[in-house]
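Troubleshooting log. The previous structure file for this entry was overwritten by mistake, so regenerating from the original sequence record. Sequence copied from the archived sheet and checked twice against the printout by T.R.
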Amino acid sequence: MLSHFHSPSGKVHFAMTSMTTKSRIQAMALLTGYLIFLAPGLVTAQSTGSIEFTAQVTPTGGRPEPVRQLTFYLLRKSLEDIRAEALQLAPAADMDEFIDGLGTSPELKAWMKKHHSVQLSGEDFVKSLSAEDILDVPEFFKAYMAHNEAYRGAGFPEPKFRKKDLDSNPEKYNAQKREYEAAIRKFIVALPDSKKGMDLELVDVNPGAKWESSEGKQRKLVEARAFRLAEERYLVAHSDTDLDGQGSFAAVAPGNYWIGMLGSEAISGDVRLNWDFPVTVRRGVTSRVELSNLNASKPSFEAHNSNP
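Regenerated output below.
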């Protein structure tokens, strides 16, 4: 039979006296139940792990600051992969399809598809234009000519062909037109600064803002679906950081997880951070994680996000 006694130290000891095999099994079951009764959290504590984390963000030229009272999520899948899954449900806008719907010349559509860009403004755009681009795309040529109107008669090429020659002497007209285009090409190559500012003449045909608006709506849709997927399929737990930027996840089953933020960012000065940090939970172990600028998923700066 199973008996117990207390030692002088106060500990409980168990002993089995002579008994049959069946009786021993019954006794062992009784002992297990008795131990669980004495320490109800023992099995759970030994079969799970926990995570303690600290989050801080450092502004440019500043000191680290704790990420206070923001919600962090523990997920079974990385946010990057969740967003990819959401993107399959809401595919990104197709730029070529967008370009096909524009009311511009075929030449400009071909240029935008070739360069995979619909932004027709800015210093980088103007610098990227070659003399051939300006001469081949009607919108570019018109903008360049309008912008350089002030230079007419001051070294800027003058056309010799006349519209009346197009019918009466087409060979002469075409030859003089080719000479004129060659002269403009030579002028652009010799004076690349003559392109500066020509994008101001393209405001009415620039589809950049319309495309950015379309992309912005698409990003919001993808983020909303990713948030829903994370909550419905991959969420394990969530934790709000305290005033010291500390949070924790308790009683987590062993496995691989990711700590991230959904629908929010950690902001300090000009720096905005988000995390998608992997962490492994082991049975009976507390994993400690420090989240900072160094392991943020995609650090960004407020100055870079000034445009919608």
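The chain has three domains: 2-40, 49-91+211-305, 103-206. Archived copy saved in two places this time.
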